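Morning, I've got a small favour to ask if you have a moment. I've dropped the whole record in just underneath, so have a look.
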Amino acid sequence: MANNLALVNPEDSSRNTNVEGFAFYQGFGTPNAQMKANLQKVKQMQKAFAQAGYHIDPEVAFEVTNWFHLNIQPLLVQGGPGTGKTELAKVVAATTGLKYYRFQCFPGVEAKDVLYWWNEQLQNLLVKTAYQGGKIDISEIKKLIYSPDCRIDGVFARALLDPRPSLIHLDELDKAGDKFEASLLQVSAEGKITISETNGEIISISGVRPRIVFTSNAGVHGMKEAHSQPLLRRSKFIALRKPSIVRQYCVLREKFPDLPEALVKACVIFSYQVDEFVRMDKPLDLSEVINWMHSLRETGSTKLSWETIVANIGDLAKSDLDRKNLLASVDTIFLFIKENSAMDIRELSARVEKTVAGIKDWRKRG
């Protein structure tokens, strides 16, 4: 069953204390059976995601795994475009056997768009038919016009009425307003919908509470700064940051297995250096790096050069100023790539991220 996440054979129990890559577990206290079992669940989910082509950092795997198995609240995933929010929702459903329901939020979206609404034409026809019969029984008419036959189910209602366990994904929740978020509180907290016209309820017929994932760009590039406090209280919140060098490398190797490894590695280093050290009005997203590499492959490029950067700069710089600042830094970045290209990707990631952290700390103190 989906609740068990029995997709990847767990490692031998004698290796449960192996926390390589999960060093944060070491601060949890003396290892016990529950800790070991939890660690195995996290490693199992991370491995299942990787086999599906989605590489996730250990700390995020930990939060997602525990949210999934507890299944007591929605998951609110916030991050910039290209950080993998939508793919995370999809891969959770795909690797756990859940039916995937997705709804794209938009300005002006209303509760009925995701819960339910009524077929007014059919209701009017039923009322006219009842009047033609002579004697009118108001209670009977109410039963007719508010029957399931007159109801049009939104994504939440359809998922609850699906005999298969499901995952409901509301994408770009930041485009909706607080009023819409308020309409989600009951289904978020209780996993059911109350039909206000009849006081009836729509509950999960699968016997498993649907998992709910909200994805949001709130706080990114001047977008909506935060969600309503009631929704936040009812949700588990995680923020997807820019992928680490190692994760970027894994993602790009997965997507471009035909490109030379040295080129993929150089692209990862280049994009990371641009994002961290070049003053860009529009920071690079992973999705833009992927589009850039598609362009490189299309031209048959086997290495990065000044010419390949200039020819495909439209994938990286989205304004004249960004283009100017990027081109001014190309030689410096190429020198960094030349000096570090032979380094193991994990060692390089640790070194670069330590340097970036030091620079950020210095800026704060300054």
